[in-house]
């Protein structure tokens, strides 16, 4: 990467774009609704069960100018979801500012592991044990989505729930490879702890991106 491109990436004017696609949101509060996804490369959180590990290495994804990203996005949907990787690895202010100029609704899916940048209409915080969220994001998260891979994740979920704001919607979501084992445990847990809701990766059941 030449110095000029690197500077533009560092400033958030270009981003390592892994993929972009129009589909149905499969998870959380907005499941079942149409949205345009912008998947940004780069993540050092390193969840062993991550289903998009190809997003981790930003260097293999082409630096793409945000003008081009926004031009594509506005063709398809009024709702844009920025995901990763970990999108907050990068400065999200330029991208979200441009999307807002187009009158679009902007959502983010993030572990919160880095400083919150950007203008967001909806923040889905999905914290990870190995790199905890920056404290500031808890106050503004709209939904907390904790992935349940094993029984200890219920403890972690309760710890995280203590930090979010009172209006944040709380979700437990089974890790896909463990869903048959963990769904019954999640159901039992939520029936005893009714502040939580179930989130499923419905797009995988629908066989869509």
From TrEMBL:
**Cofactors per UniProt?**
S-adenosyl-L-methionine; [4Fe-4S] cluster; Mg(2+)
Residue ranges of the Radical SAM core domain? 30-209
> What does the record give as its pathway?
Purine metabolism; 7-cyano-7-deazaguanine biosynthesis
PROSITE patterns listed in its UniProt record: RADICAL_SAM
Q: How is the cofactor bound?
A: Binds 1 S-adenosyl-L-methionine per subunit.
Gene3D superfamilies annotated for this entry? Aldolase class I
Q: What is its EC number?
A: 4.3.99.3
Superkingdom of source: Bacteria
Identify the HAMAP family for this entry: QueE (MF_00917)
Q: Which PANTHER family match?
A: 7-CARBOXY-7-DEAZAGUANINE SYNTHASE
Q: Which family does it belong to?
A: Belongs to the radical SAM superfamily. 7-carboxy-7-deazaguanine synthase family.
Q: What is this protein called?
A: 7-carboxy-7-deazaguanine synthase
Source species, please?
A: Planktosalinus lacus
- Phylogenetic lineage: Bacteria, Pseudomonadati, Bacteroidota, Flavobacteriia, Flavobacteriales
| Gene that this polypeptide is encoded by | queE
């Amino acid at each position: 990467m030449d110095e000029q491109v690197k500077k533009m990436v560092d400033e958030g004017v270009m981003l390592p774009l892994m993929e972009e696609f129009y589909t149905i949101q499969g998870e959380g509060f907005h499941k079942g609704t149409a949205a345009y996804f912008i998947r940004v490369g780069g993540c050092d959180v390193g969840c062993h069960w991550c289903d998009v590990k190809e997003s981790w290495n930003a260097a293999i994804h082409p630096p793409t100018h945000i003008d081009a990203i926004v031009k594509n996005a506005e063709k398809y949907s009024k709702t844009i979801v920025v995901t990763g990787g970990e999108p907050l690895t990068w400065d999200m202010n330029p991208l979200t500012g441009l999307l807002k100029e187009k009158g679009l609704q902007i959502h983010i899916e993030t572990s919160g592991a880095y400083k919150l940048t950007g203008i967001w209409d909806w923040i889905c915080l999905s914290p990870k044990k190995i790199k905890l969220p920056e404290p500031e994001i808890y106050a503004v998260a709209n939904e907390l989505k904790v992935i349940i891979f094993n029984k200890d994740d219920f403890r972690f979920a309760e710890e995280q729930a203590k930090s979010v704001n009172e209006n944040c919607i709380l979700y437990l979501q089974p890790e896909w490879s463990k869903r048959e084992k963990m769904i019954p445990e999640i159901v039992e847990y939520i029936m005893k702890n009714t502040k939580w809701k179930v989130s499923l990766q419905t797009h995988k059941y629908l066989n869509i991106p």
